[in-house]
Specification:
alpha/beta; Nucleotidyltransferase, domain 5; 46% helix; disordered N terminus
Length: 551
């Protein structure tokens, strides 16, 4: 069993907890993969107890529409159903599933995920390229010792290639580029064996597409650093296996830590380009369905290594799926004192985006505090959302005014756009959509079915969450109408028989009548009243009294 990150402390501070079994599924462009792991929370560490893979080729989309093909959707759902059965047999307590570039880019990608949830009861998170890179980093970090040195990581998938620069504590650079083994094969290769013209175009295209990511990596290297290159996933593991078989005639028991040189890679690429798909299939170590895409994948690696100035690459068998496990452990408090920097990734990225758009954080913090207080005090009576939804409300409260960066007019709509396209790391695409919608509806019109951004939410539950939490956010914004912290606290009392909600307002200054805040509450309360079916009454408390038990 590998420690999560052996350079971090792994001495348990509490009595050992029971082992937990978790499954993670990655819906990739080329294949669907699942790992099932046993977590030892006392270390913290996890060991892989089962692996499943099915080559489905989600990236083989309709050429004219870009949509996922019906027969491939059917095959993917069948594979996911089989994965579920395997996980159930091994007594996995939960399955975390993520989808990447193929589903992200397909016009019917969200419909596919909705169908998966409807037919299998399996919720799949759609993640951005940068979020994919972050989880790959976490996965590699769980399987390799970094010795507090910077490392470059390359993950060549079917539809995208992630290039990452990170050390033992943080990822410095996270990039994702739309070059992948399946994508380039389908878009650029029509001859078998490949013609000289197509091969030269393939090389030039891969190099040109990777240049920006490589520049970003190299720019963030500090003087004197020469990080080693780590490679993950199918293409690189296949190339390593072929190399190992040819160099030693032995099948390595593990590819973790295996190295090969750029010189040897160039020789292999030169051989592969001269072979047909059928001839490549005969190479020892070549997996089924890999021969037709291995050339494009190996060219991507060759060009990346050349641009990075790396003469060799080290293989890591852990990647996105294991990173999904680490991320789950972080969010469930199983790595409390380790990875502290990583565990705050959501908060840090929300604040980073707020700073980027010159948001007044002192004001946003007050709004977020009011929103959280109202959320907590009405939980179980007016709504039944949990801490996860409360965190999304916090993020929306911090960012609700960021649209001012573009214009004061319709700034709520600008906030939606900036959040939606802000690459908030640590969140899934659905969560980002929810945060953006909550910010969008902090003022003006409440959510309506005709609004495109509201329509894009797939489930009735998500739409209800937007409607209810945005109504709470409206009140929180009203409570700091002058943006000077005029109100210190608010006490919320609900009377179910009367269907009435009383807000007791406690001013910060003894003689402040908070007239503007009370007016704003009265003006904005209609949406809240309609959403929750209550009458809202706000009154100023006697300043001598101050509640202490409601926060």
């Amino acid at each position: 069993m590998l420690n999560l990150v052996s350079s971090w402390e792994s001495v348990p501070t509490q009595p050992p907890k029971q082992h937990r079994i978790i499954a993670a599924i990655d819906l990739g462009t080329n294949s669907l993969h699942m790992v099932v792991v046993k977590i030892d929370p006392a270390l913290p560490a996890f060991s892989i107890i089962a692996r499943e893979k099915e080559t489905v080729r989600l990236g083989d989309r309709n050429l004219s529409t870009g949509e996922l093909k019906p027969e491939i959707i059917k095959k993917a759902i069948a594979a996911l159903g089989r994965f579920q059965e395997v996980a159930k047999t091994i007594n996995a307590e939960t399955i975390i599933a993520v989808a990447t570039s193929a589903v992200r880019e397909a016009p019917n990608g969200k419909d596919f995920l909705h169908r998966v949830e409807t037919e299998l009861g399996l919720s799949v998170d759609l993640i951005s390229g940068q979020e994919e890179a972050r989880r790959i980093y976490l996965g590699v970090l769980s399987g390799m010792e970094f010795h507090n040195q910077p490392h470059m990581i390359i993950d060549i998938g079917g539809g995208s290639t992630e290039l990452i620069l990170g050390d033992s504590h943080q990822a410095r650079t996270l990039t994702s580029t739309k070059v992948g083994a399946v994508r380039l094969t389908s878009e650029l290769i029509t001859t078998d064996p490949i013609s000289n013209t197509e091969f030269q175009h393939l090389q030039a295209y891969a190099r040109g597409m990777l240049e920006r990511s490589v520049d970003e990596i190299l720019t963030n290297l500090e003087f004197g650093e020469s990080p080693r290159l780590v490679g993950t996933s199918g293409t690189i593991e296949t190339l390593a296996m072929i190399h190992a078989r040819e160099k030693s005639s032995l099948i390595p028991s593990t590819l973790n830590g295996y190295q090969f040189s750029l010189k040897d890679l160039r020789e292999l690429v030169n051989r592969l380009r001269k072979l047909s798909n059928a001839e490549r299939a005969m190479i020892p170590g070549m997996p089924d369905k890999r021969p037709e895409v291995i050339l494009a994948g190996s060219v991507i690696l060759q060009e990346a290594m050349s641009l990075l100035g790396s003469e060799s690459i080290t293989v890591c068998e852990r990647s996105l799926r294991e990173g999904v496990i680490v991320d789950w452990m972080l969010t469930h408090g199983l790595i409390e004192d380790k990875l502290r920097y990583q565990s705050s990734v959501r908060e840090r990225n929300v604040l980073k985006l707020a700073n980027k758009y010159h948001t007044n954080l002192e004001y946003s913090d007050r709004v977020a505090a009011f929103a959280q207080s109202l959320f907590d005090q009405t939980q179980g009576s007016l709504h039944h959302w949990g801490s996860d939804e409360g965190q999304l409300l916090w993020a929306a409260a911090i960012l609700h005014n960021c649209g001012h960066y573009i214009s004061h007019s319709s700034h709520h709509k600008h906030s939606y756009y900036l959040i939606r396209n802000g690459e908030l790391l640590g969140y899934t695409e659905t969560e980002i959509e929810i945060i953006a919608n909550l910010a969008r509806y902090h003022r003006k019109s409440p959510p309506k079915k005709k609004h495109e951004n509201y329509q894009s939410l797939l489930t009735k539950q998500q739409r209800q969450m937007i409607s209810q939490l945005s109504a709470i956010l409206r009140l929180a914004v009203a409570l700091d109408r002058r943006q000077i912290g005029a109100i210190a606290q608010v006490k919320c009392e609900y009377y179910p028989q009367l269907r009435q909600c009383n807000l007791l307002i406690f001013p910060s200054q003894p003689h402040d009548d908070c007239a503007l805040e009370l007016w704003s509450l009265d003006y904005k309360k209609g949406v809240f009243e309609e959403e929750f079916g209550v009458r809202l009454v706000a009154t100023l408390a006697e300043t001598a009294r101050s509640p202490t038990s409601h926060f």
